[in-house]
Automatic annotation (TrEMBL):
Substrate binds at residues 130, 301. Keywords: Isomerase, Pyridoxal phosphate. This is Alanine racemase. Pathway: Amino-acid biosynthesis; D-alanine biosynthesis; D-alanine from L-alanine: step 1/1.
Length: 356
């Protein structure tokens, strides 16, 4: 029998989440963001169920080529652009849309021999200071690009740092608006948080990622609880051991958990080599035998321990959900001081994935 851990993907949840996004941004086209192998879900498994999107956005050439060769004919956007001038061969051959964020990329485009003009996402650094040109240079850069025969349509693009928090997007929006004054053509600004919470940023193309997979851009499940978004990935396993602790008995590496009273604990076939966070503290929520309980002790490579006090019927073979349909990944991530983004995209290759 195989080790009992597996990840199950609800494919209907994916297309449903895309419908929810359409309702939030009815007048915009949608880039389905599938970087990091579809946030850990596997591009080849999921893309057909997102093919109602207007395009796919990602950043690895390998992933872009996989999508093309799988049969996706529509737009593909390279969110980080090309990494060397020689990449333009693949941009041309696979008809990719590329972001442009640095001067060397413009020089490379000007030198390139292409079979057709390439569509460009001109990246404005509106305050995040990750990728992009300074806002006061945008008009000059736009003119440079516009003059090149290698360049087709130019879309102004920027990315928000705080669309999921009370700080909002106003400061960055003001920068983008000013940078783009007098420049015609499409705009693409909104990530998941802005797609849900800042409709004025939707413009021509939205770029939702995490909400396609049914997790919250803020890290708080309550923030998306009323949207109708559904979790796509359920990570489940089983109890493979039971221990009866006496007061003072300790659990796991570092002996970081001590029983204060007689306690039954279960050992789950899931550890950090499966993608479960090693830094999950005792008290991280976990769903066992239909009830929500907590982890105890340090997560090992292949196992973790859970408190069975609220689930007295649980025994070897009892199903455990690490996150998913019954336990939002956001709740697990919050207990670990991280986001659903990190947990989903870290699902380890050794975990078998099934679709439902
Ligand atoms: C990852 C990414 C997105 C999607 O972000 P979410 O928060 O997952 O919606 C959009 N735009 C860019 C440039 C990105 O890098």
């Amino acid at each position: 029998m195989p080790r009992p851990i597996s990840a199950t993907l609800s494919l209907s949840a994916l297309s449903h989440n895309l419908d929810v996004i359409r309702r939030f941004a009815p007048n915009s086209k949608v880039w389905a963001v599938v970087k990091a192998n579809g946030y850990g879900h596997g591009i080849s498994r999921i893309w057909k169920h997102l093919s109602g999107a207007d395009g796919f956005a990602l950043l690895d050439f390998k992933e872009a080529i996989l999508l093309r060769e799988a049969g996706w004919e529509g737009p593909i956007l390279l969110l980080e652009g090309f990494f060397s001038a020689s990449d333009l061969t693949a941009v041309d051959r696979y008809r990719l849309t590329t972001s442009v964020h640095s001067d060397w990329q413009i020089a490379a485009l000007a030198e390139a021999q292409l079979s057709q003009p390439v569509n460009i996402y001109l990246k404005v650094n509106s305050g995040m200071n990750r990728l992009g040109f300074a806002p006061e240079r945008i008009r000059e850069i736009w003119q440079q690009l516009h003059a090149l025969k290698q360049v087709g349509e130019i879309t102004l693009m920027s990315h928000f740092a705080t669309a999921d928090s009370t700080e909002g997007v106003d400061t960055q929006v003001a920068v983008i608006t000013q940078a783009g004054e007098g420049i015609s053509g499409p705009r693409s600004l909104a990530n998941s948080a802005a797609t849900l919470w800042h409709p004025s940023t939707h413009h021509d193309w939205v770029r939702p990622g995490i909400i396609l997979y049914g997790a919250s851009p803020s890290g708080q499940w309550q923030d998306i609880a009323t949207t109708g978004l559904q979790p796509v990935m359920t990570l489940s396993s089983e109890l493979i051991g039971i221990q009866h602790l006496h007061p003072g008995d300790r659990v796991g590496y570092g002996a970081r958990y001590t029983a204060l009273q007689p306690q039954r604990i279960g050992v789950v076939a899931c550890g950090y080599a499966d993608g479960y966070p090693r830094h999950a503290p005792s008290g991280t929520p976990v769903w066992v035998d239909g009830v929500r309980t907590v982890t105890v002790g340090t997560v090992s490579m292949d196992m973790l321990a859970v408190d069975l006090t609220p689930c007295p019927q649980a025994q070897i073979g009892t199903p455990v959900e690490l996150w998913g349909k019954n336990l939002p990944v956001d709740d697990v991530a919050a207990a670990c001081g991280t986001l659903g983004y990190e947990l989903l995209s870290a699902l380890a290759p050794r975990v078998p994935v099934t679709t439902a």
